[in-house]
Amino acid sequence: MVAWNRDESHLPAALRGLRLPLVGSPMFIVSGPELVIAQCKAGIIGSFPALNAREAEGEPPLLEIWLQQINDELDRHNQENPDRPAAPFAVNQIVHRSNVRLERDLEICNRYKVPIWITSLGARVEVNEAAHDCGGIVLHDIINNTFAKKAIDKGADGLIAVAAGAGGHAGPQSPFALIREIREWFDGPLLLSGAIATGEALLAACALGADFGYAGSPFIATTEANAQAEYKEMIVTSGAEDIVTSSLFTGVSGNYLKPSITAAGMDAENLPSADASSMNFGSGSSKPKAWKEIWGSGQGIGAIDKVMDTAELVDGIERAFLEVGARLANEFST
Ligand SMILES: Cc1cc2nc3c(=O)[nH]c(=O)nc-3n(C[C@H](O)[C@H](O)[C@H](O)COP(=O)(O)O)c2cc1C
Predict the structure, then answer these.
(1) Could you tell me the pTM of the whole model?
(2) I need a labelling partner for 320 at 20 to 30 A (CA). Which of 32, 51, 94, 200 fits?
């Protein structure tokens, strides 16, 4: 029986002792309480963007209802399964000036003592303070070493390196280059994102020096994801060649499924670009079309060949992670 043990003394308590070094990354529209609860019960950190919790005018904040639901479900799971407790969860805050809900959402997450905060599109001291004030930790996502240094200077506890091939707003850099440059000066929590869809890729991320893999697209094709059946099916039938990089839909470079662009009546091979000033998260996304009709995905989805439960997906990733880890360990001797 193969077991995975590592020195986790450099990691904050919230990131220690997990079944696998894996975080289910936050995805606009796709990640809701059902997926997060399934990921945490499967033993990996689950997450969702706060902006996904959207109530109708005059209704109580849906974010509070979701946080209560997640806490209650995970508490129940932990009481019933003391031998395999759920992993903690994370909430993603889009720290962009157009996110008019930010202050309210920070207050709610602080009050519910969210254990892990993931910040994107802007590093701000006051967001880090709101997290630390309730005992939370902040992981900030970056696409290069300069942004990584800025994020740590402003008080983030850890970094998410978003490398080439990632779904959503991917970076242009190779994970080999990016992780190496960050590890030259940073020995805190480091996550790697970009086309991690298998146990082999997860192991490779750890070999590079990342503490965790950060995977989104594979979870779109799970039963618990909040995605149309056609979107899930497109993940199953597509591969890396079907992913197009474009700034047209949100104002920042992102990766999308080519067939969804074609289905929306556009020429996926000849998309015009847009500039960053068109980014607007006031209503959650830059443009209503992006994410709803134009579906985001990273390049790793060739590994996904059916829609399945999150638990099954995580089991498969764990199996390969342990098998390949054991095989490699055998190939070395001291
Ligand atoms: C459909 C979709 C929506 C996303 N929405 C968000 C988001 O709202 N906030 C965020 O920080 N990252 C978002 N991302 C990026 C992911 O959190 C993560 O960086 C990426 O999915 C990792 O690459 P992978 O999809 O190849 O696993 C999104 C990704 C996808 C595919």
Answers:
(1) 0.95
(2) 32
